[in-house]
Amino acid sequence: MMENKKDKYKYFGAIHIHTLYSDGTGNIEAITNSAKKAGLDWIIITDHNNFDVQEGIINGIYVIKGEEISPDYGNHYIALGINKLIQPSDNSQDNVDTVKLNGGFGFSAHPDESDIRKNSHRPLKWTDKDIIPDGIEIWNLFSQWADNYNSKNIFTIAYSYLFKQNLITKPYQKTLEWWDELNNKNKKIVPAIAGSDAHEFKISKYIIPVKVLSYEYSFKTILNKIYLKEDLSQNFETAKEQILNAIKNGNNIIANMSVCKDIPKICISNNNTTVQCGETLKLDNNTYIIVECKRNTKITVVKDGIKINTTHSENLKLKLSESGKYRVETELNGKGFAYSNPIIVED
Length: 347
Ligand SMILES: [Zn+2]
Ligand SMILES: [Zn+2]
Prior knowledge:
Blueprint: E1 10-17, H1 28-37, E2 42-48, E3 56-58, E4 61-69, E5 77-80, H2 92-101, E6 105-108, E7 135-140, H3 141-148, H4 154-162, H5 173-185, E8 192-195, E9 201-203, E10 210-212, H6 215-219, E11 222-227, H7 236-248, E12 252-256, E13 265-269, E14 274-275, E15 280-282, E16 288-303, E17 306-319, E18 324-332, E19 335-340, E20 343-346
Parallel strand pairs: 1-2, 2-4, 6-7, 7-8, 15-20
Antiparallel strand pairs: 1-11, 3-4, 4-5, 5-6, 9-10, 11-12, 12-19, 13-14, 13-16, 16-17, 16-18, 18-19, 18-20
One zinc ion binds next to loops.
């Protein structure tokens, strides 16, 4: 993103992308071209039960591969940091464990897809909330669009394609609550990601053939902005480690860039230091959570799953007097905008 390049060590990327190796319609050449047009720095390909796509710096985009471990009935699991194909098990706990055994980490994909879809698409949600993933995909672009896609008649169908941005609202409350619950049970941060679930399905049954959420559209919509401590390396293997570590540690903000391109700055500072999403600092008499937006934004601060402050403003500086996990949700013009990973404030 050009205007944000001044912002040091912050890199935009899309996670959860399908290619021709599974049910996507693009090859890596086309997908990286779309990512370039959208101004992304990195992408993570996660084909269903496939690990064949090429990695590396392609068309100037860092391309990392993972896998969407996809049992037939749902419980899809976005596996990152693995270096070989993992066969899906019907037992989701096995999938979570196998990813860990292989040195990777994973995210529950589209965990709360709607059961009452207005179309024929079968929901593939995370059915057993007692099985604890390493992290959660709190917002999935394609899944939310499909949940709200209305196949009732030609007008509702046309609306779903022409006004697709109206079908993208905000992360589901149920998912956010599950995420908070897991964070409350865990000492460390349970990280969250945004998933594009980009396929660019091509449908030719209508008078005009249509692309369903093109790669380029997907890459301009729900994204992850990661925070690093230094420049992203020119060396692919080093850069891959930097990106994956940032995601694993929750050093990212999730945002719908079609709402606004200026992602809010969210940090917590005390007498000694300032930290970003996914980091930890000590509580002292001068600890503040700071949110800086470019426009009047609805800013909500959530502590240990409880909303403690909601403000409509460009900026928020809130003094903190208790330890806990703090995260920020923002909405702009009634639409979900940017969601931070938690920051830990300890005694
Ligand atoms: Zn899936
Ligand atoms: Zn998918």
